[in-house]
TrEMBL record:
Species name: Halarcobacter mediterraneus
Function: This is one of the proteins that bind and probably mediate the attachment of the 5S RNA into the large ribosomal subunit, where it forms part of the central protuberance.
Gene Ontology CC annotation, any one: cytosolic large ribosomal subunit
Subunit record text: Part of the 50S ribosomal subunit; part of the 5S rRNA/L5/L18/L25 subcomplex. Contacts the 5S and 23S rRNAs.
CDD domains attached to this UniProt entry: Ribosomal_L18_L5e
Annotated keywords: Ribonucleoprotein, Ribosomal protein, RNA-binding, rRNA-binding
Descriptive protein name: Large ribosomal subunit protein uL18
NCBIfam families hit by this protein: L18_bact
GO annotation (BP), single: translation
Amino acid sequence: MSRIKDIAKKNSSRIVRKRRVRGDIGRGTAETPRVTVFKSNRYLSAQAINDIAGVTLAAVNSKALNLSVSRENAVKVAAEFAEKLKAAGIEKVVFDRNGYLYHGVVAAFADGLRENGIKL
């Protein structure tokens, strides 16, 4: 029973961090969309969101690329996502880590975007 409580506490803590981060970074616009990251134990996904219009401008998922979640694969996913952003005419974004710590896979994804010419 204790394990279930630990998992619930972990998830609720991430939600609290998520709300705090979202309040700090503000809203994404058409010129500078908000890039949000979601990671599970198996996959990584990201999307660029225009919060004002409520639309997703670009998205990528590691499952579609047949990649698991790791730091090396996060860089590959970031490169694919950067190409989609450039095709949509987006050069600058606001990074939303979605309550995850800026460490490991999330940091590798952000660094991969920077390496491919996207300004965070």
